[in-house]
């Protein structure tokens, strides 16, 4: 048991999927996993362990933003021995050629958060995904026939951010904005584990197109299947 997770030792798998939304964790466990056990209900931040094609895998909600996600990621690594952590989130696209429901691999994550900057005064410590997981996820996506995008994203402390900074970042090739990847990559670097972020475009910042809250909870199956194939490879 850790401060925010009530699982007993051994109840959480080394490979874990991390949606922000705990109801997405429930949907994944009920839809894709076999022999499922719910190991966490503390604060409603649901966590489950089951098997996918014979591979043991967990799925844990992390909440929104780096302060919340970092708590779960820290405890999963340090109290439960998680080794491969794959965030599966939603994002807002900031490029014209990135479409709603596209799947993105966050090769790297820029951030406006002070979480990392405060630890490295005077340095810009880069937040990068694990190459091995990126390669497996890219192959799993292309095997499924997806036009999977790979590139830089912005992990912002703000959902409602100022548009001019997003325009500037888009001009530098950033694909989309979300709120946790940089925090995940930073903790993975700090504790020597592997991490990846997969995102589905739920909103288009340039066109205003959006998916419904129900879709955000449940229907991003392409991304979920790519994540599960990545941990099963
Ligand atoms: O869908 P999730 O994984 O929560 O990710 C995105 O959605 C939330 C904002 O609506 C933020 O957590 C952002 O990163
Ligand atoms: O952080 C996020 C997540 C989804 N959509 C956005 O516009 N921003």
Kindly state the number of beta strands: 9
Indicate the proportion of strand residues.
Answer: 25-35%
Q: Calculate the mean pLDDT score and round it.
A: 95
Distance between the termini: 30 Å
What is the radius of gyration?
16 Å
Helix fraction by DSSP (H/I, runs of at least 4): 25-40%
Note the total helix count: 8
What structural class do helix, strand and pairing data support?
Answer: alpha/beta
The helix/strand order is: EHEEEHEEHHEHEHEHH
Taking pLDDT < 50 over at least 5 consecutive residues as the criterion, the unreliable ranges are none
* Morphology call: globular
Biggest sheet record: 5 strands, mixed, barrel
GO molecular function: purine-nucleoside phosphorylase activity; uridine phosphorylase activity
Binding site for a purine D-ribonucleoside: 4, 178-180, 202-203
Subunit structure: Homohexamer; trimer of homodimers.
Catalytic activity: uridine + phosphate = alpha-D-ribose 1-phosphate + uracil; a purine 2'-deoxy-D-ribonucleoside + phosphate = a purine nucleobase + 2-deoxy-alpha-D-ribose 1-phosphate; a purine D-ribonucleoside + phosphate = a purine nucleobase + alpha-D-ribose 1-phosphate
